[in-house]
Amino acid sequence: MLAKRIERLTSSLVRDILAVAQRPGVISFAGGLPADEALLNVDLSALSPELLSSAMQYGPTEGERGLREHVAARMAEIGLKCRADQVLILNGSQQGIDLVSKLMLEEGTPVLVEEPAYLAALQSFKLFGADLRTVPLQQGVNIDALAALMPSVNLAYLTPTFQNPSGYCYSEAERKSVAALVDTHGVCLFEDDPYRELAYDTPAPAPMVSFIQSALWIYQGSFSKTLAPGLRLGFLIAHPDLMPHLIRLKQAADLHSNRLSQLIVGQILASGQLAPHLAKSLPIYRERRDAMAAALQRHLAPYASWQVPAGGLFFWVKLAAVNDTLALMHQCLSNDLAIMPGVAFMAGGRDDGYVRLNFSHAKPELIECGIAKLAQLVSVQQKV
Amino acid sequence: MLAKRIERLTSSLVRDILAVAQRPGVISFAGGLPADEALLNVDLSALSPELLSSAMQYGPTEGERGLREHVAARMAEIGLKCRADQVLILNGSQQGIDLVSKLMLEEGTPVLVEEPAYLAALQSFKLFGADLRTVPLQQGVNIDALAALMPSVNLAYLTPTFQNPSGYCYSEAERKSVAALVDTHGVCLFEDDPYRELAYDTPAPAPMVSFIQSALWIYQGSFSKTLAPGLRLGFLIAHPDLMPHLIRLKQAADLHSNRLSQLIVGQILASGQLAPHLAKSLPIYRERRDAMAAALQRHLAPYASWQVPAGGLFFWVKLAAVNDTLALMHQCLSNDLAIMPGVAFMAGGRDDGYVRLNFSHAKPELIECGIAKLAQLVSVQQKV
């Protein structure tokens, strides 16, 4: 009686982990939560009563004009020229994945994804019946594998900047190579870019879609990591040919995004407060990344390998002697430690012994304590 | 290259009307906007800084616990007993239509809808490939026609209370009859109930789903009409068997709803401010309904027939000599008057000469002026 796609709604494993991770006393590296200390300190008194009151009525599906213009201007700064007409304000960038799934996918549509890739994107693509084709992304992207897959897919979903979970950031040369491939094969490129501003060492290269000449494309970003996820505000920018469809899909999904959040974020962008906010937040993230790097080096070096991520929110750690990361996750939970098993990010379901460790939410002293605990559990496993 | 469903995304006609309707100088009966004067006067100072700051982080997919409990308590008051666990907070009730479409529909799934019915529900169902089967709802619901269709459908979508566009409200006896039919035939009932609180004469009977014994069901409501559409906040309540799927679909769609809006509405419900707010708003709506009833009687009686709606936001007016309401709409627009052609609400696309006139947004003097203008245009048409 239910639609067939409901059978493809993957298990609630991850929801369960995240629920347990919130138990008092649990050290959680499981979620992707921004540091509480880096969240926007929302100043509602900055909003005029007139603006507030007008924001209570229905608004435009595309989003508030002023916010769309600020987003377009910000995009130009990072190398993606677009008009405000190409900006669609989203109820968080997860919604962009839903809209693009509706736009592009039906049962059996071949989609290129990285392996590993963002869990909730894989879930949405599967829900809509995608046939996922994977390109390995372990110690860098495999451009040859990517080139080999291109002729057989309609859509390529990539997170080229500080990817969740691998942390990998495509070089400018790699971005140009992939853009040339989608142009050659007429593949639509969907670039997911929520972590760009969380760059701890050097800024990321321009978006991959900015190097496209002829192919269709959708790019999306988020205010969840830079300002506050609770505001549920993201945006997408797309090739002009796709905009009318995406706007109608957004309208059918929820008419338009929350206007209060749009007002708050619009006011922050208009008054130039984003840069100072990031200048305050980034040191917090950098400190936690460095704390986790040090703790890993101190405790886990004999059992694991990893790259220190140049941005984003995660370490992607390969455990030498672990081949069942789900079992390890359960073991960790029994010891009040929450981690994400790498297998959850693999479209093919292979378990390569990776775990994803979030470094942004726990304070440095808890990071130290949690990594020591993980090392203890892994070392026992190694001996067995 | 795009998904086939995109061909079923209906034309932007209505978006175009609504865009034109906002032109200065246009009298608009086209949209379904609440009266500006009845919108929530949001008092952000009532929110504690601690609450505000905690609302900036990611939140639960199901919605804030306190808000879900208040919704469940409110439902009990109107005769629908449910647990807070059965409440899912939505980004406006349009999102419920999207989630239920995903839950129930695939290409060819037979769905019972009223004719006329809410335009954007028809659009969503069509997008997901539904085979729409219509039951007439002109001067009351045709229970025999409904009973005849029941054995052949999986889902019935009904708006039994002050329906958009017809304004019709099912009696308690009719509600019980339909509930018995869905029980007998094992059809899932989707009851859309955004207008319940906008009752100008007597309160509406208990929700139809409250009379169900065994069938699956989903009920949804909205804070858009009672408080403010810009907050984008609605809710659904469902049979316990459906909740796990609906929660996962919500998670895949946008992770969770805006927390600031949830905080604002939760605080209003907790402090008992909804009832006084409605006591202030309803007279505004009642006055405008009565103004339109009087204007229709004064100007349009020779050319049209209608029922005065006991609630909701619309008059559904049958024009005796008009058989192309789309042409009439264009004629009206040329004369700075916006109306909705009835054909847009008919799943079968038949034009029975109805127009939908919103009475909530325009002030009484503009209602008078707009109806006089409409009568003039219709009278000319009648003579031709």
Automatic annotation (TrEMBL), chains A, B:
Cofactor(s) named in the record: pyridoxal 5'-phosphate
Name of the protein this chain belongs to: Putative 8-amino-7-oxononanoate synthase
Keyword annotations of the record: Aminotransferase, Pyridoxal phosphate, Transferase
Ranges for domain Aminotransferase class I/classII large: 53-368
Keyword Oxidoreductase: no
Entry's Gene Ontology molecular function annotations: transaminase activity
Record-linked CDD domains: AAT_like (cd00609)
UniProt key word Amino-acid biosynthesis: no
Domain of life: Bacteria
Organism per entry: Deefgea chitinilytica
